[in-house]
Design goal:
6 copies of one chain form a homohexamer. The first copy, chain A, is of the alpha+beta class. Chain A contains 1 helix and 4 strands, in the order βαβββ. Chain A starts with a strand and ends in a 6-residue tail after the last strand. Chains in contact: A-B, A-C, A-D, A-E, B-C, B-D, B-F, C-E, C-F, D-E, D-F, E-F. The A-E interface holds A 1-9, 12, 16-17, 19-20, 22-24, 26-28, 30-33, 51, 53, 58 and E 1-9, 12, 16-17, 19-20, 22-24, 26-28, 30-33, 51, 53, 58. Strand 1 of chain A pairs antiparallel with strand 1 of chain E, so a sheet runs across the interface. Chains A, B, C, D, E, F: Keywords: Isomerase.
Amino acid sequence: MPIAHVYLIEGRDEEKKERLIAEVTDAIHRAVDAPIDSVRVLIIEVPKEHFGIAGQSAKKRGR
Amino acid sequence: MPIAHVYLIEGRDEEKKERLIAEVTDAIHRAVDAPIDSVRVLIIEVPKEHFGIAGQSAKKRGR
Amino acid sequence: MPIAHVYLIEGRDEEKKERLIAEVTDAIHRAVDAPIDSVRVLIIEVPKEHFGIAGQSAKKRGR
Amino acid sequence: MPIAHVYLIEGRDEEKKERLIAEVTDAIHRAVDAPIDSVRVLIIEVPKEHFGIAGQSAKKRGR
Amino acid sequence: MPIAHVYLIEGRDEEKKERLIAEVTDAIHRAVDAPIDSVRVLIIEVPKEHFGIAGQSAKKRGR
Amino acid sequence: MPIAHVYLIEGRDEEKKERLIAEVTDAIHRAVDAPIDSVRVLIIEVPKEHFGIAGQSAKKRGR
C-alpha cells in the first residue's frame, strides 16, 4: 500500500504529470513488489515563489 | 498536540470541509485523549489530475 | 480516496492507536461521503524531543 | 540535505514569503551545520477554510 | 528539484529500498525531464500498526 | 499558526535538534509575524539508507 507524494515546481503540462503518475507507480511496483492497484501517487505542485533552494525562491533564482 | 493532514481530491463544498475539520478533530480527541484545543487539521486539496490511483490520475479514471 | 497523516507525540499504547485509525477513518467517511474502504490513515509518531511547541521541544516543556 | 515544509495560512505577500525562505534556511544552517546550498524550503499555503484549529476552520474563527 | 516522499509499511530489506530510491528517481527524471542530480527521494517507513487501511491497521488485517 | 516539518538525516545530537526547533520557530516568527506560541516545528529524522540524493541513498554515497 505504498503512497508517494511528489513535490514539483508548477508548470509541467498535464501529459507529463499523467506520465509521472504512471512511471512512479511502476517504479514502486518493480522495486518493492507492491501490486500496481495498491499504489497511490499524489503530485503536490508548488509555485516558483514557494520553492526555496539555498535560501532563495526558484522565482528569484530565475527558474 | 496532534496534527492531521488530510489529502482530498478537490471538489467538496465548504460545508463538508468544515464538517471534516470538526469530525476529524473530535475523532482524535476521543481516541487519544488530546484536548480539542490542541488539535490542528489541515486539508490539502489535490486536483483530480494530480491524484494517482493504480498508475492513472483520478481524472483519467473518470472520477 | 482520502489519505490522512496524523502526527502524534510518541507514547500512546497500541489500543489507542488502533482506535485512532478507526475513528479518523469513520470521521472522514461521514464528513465527505468517502467509502470506508478507500480511506488510508497513517500515524507518524514523533519523539518528544522532536516535537516543537512555541520554540521548545515537548521534552523540554516537560510533557 | 535538510528539507523543510512550512504550512501557512494563505495571505502573506511575496516579500514575506521570500524572507521566510531565507530565514528558515539560515536557521537550519546555523542549528545543524548544513551547508546553505543543501537546504530546501517549501511553503505550502493552506486557505483559511482548510486550516482547522480546535475543530473549526480559521475562516470560521474569523482569522 | 522534485522531492518525493514514499510512505511504506516497514519490513523491506535494504537492497529493495536502495532500488526504490534508484527507480523512483529515474521515473521522475524520465517523466518531467528533471536532472537526476536534482531529485530527492525520502522513504518514510511506517510500522504495520500505524498504517490504516479501511479503518484497521495493516497489523490487525494480518499483513 | 504555522507548522514546519523538517526532514533530516538522522545522527544529530539532542542539543542541536533543540536548537533547530528554537531557531526555525524564531525564523518563522520574524519572517511572517506569527506569534512564537502559535508555531509548531516537527523534526522527522530519516535514516541514511532512506534519504535518496540523485538516485542513491546517503548511506551508499558515504555520508
